[in-house]
Amino acid sequence: MMLPSISKYKLYLYLFFFIFLSSIFNFKLVNNYQDKFRLKSINITGVSYEEKKNIEKELYNLENINIFKITEDKILEKLTKFNFIESINVKKIIPSSININLSKTSILGKTFINGENFYIGKNGKFINSNQIFEQYKTATVFGEFEINQFLNLYNILKNQKLEIVNIEEYYYFKNRRWDLVFSNGLILKLPSKNIMDSIKIYKQLIDNDDLSNIKIIDLRVINQIIMTNQNE
Length: 232
Hints:
It is a single chain. By secondary structure, the protein is of the alpha/beta class. The protein has helices at residues 8-36, 49-59, 72-79, 147-159, 195-208, and strands at 41-45, 85-93, 97-104, 107-113, 116-121, 126-128, 140-142, 167-172, 178-182, 187-189, 214-218, 226-229. The chain has 5 helices and 12 strands. The N and C termini lie far apart (129 Å). The relative contact order is 0.08.
């Protein structure tokens, strides 16, 4: 018994409908797959509410992008403008969210650049005060200095166990030296070189002598200590 023959026209018609229906199914499948892996939420921790909102605005255009196309480098690039950030940990949560844990740098001082207020971060960056929504009680640093110059001085003071919290003002001079003003009004004048040795001398002085009536300790000249009395 012979099967009834199918005309070429009908065969092509069947093939057309088969391909058409298959294409619709495949399109929906691909579309559903892509939608499933679109970034829908970015969860940020480690910063204040206001700082978080500013960071979310910077990352806003990453939403609805396929999560596999978003690299850690792309996120880090967007966060470089926030100088108060010390470290960043990025973790993708498949299928559609990213967790970002941030840690903030320590604030070591504040200064003025072109009339604007900046904080000095332990991470080696000047931080515009409009990026931070917390108030920090810290020493003021005056003069035109490179941030590494201040950090070098700060680390020397810290390593010598000087009570940095008692320093209210730092003054930097063009000949690359510093004056320190303490909360009790005492002024310490440091040389441009051998700062560590000078700090050691200062520590010996405050440990062994009564400096209550001393206004200025001048250590700018090597092997010479000049102390000025309050009444002079």
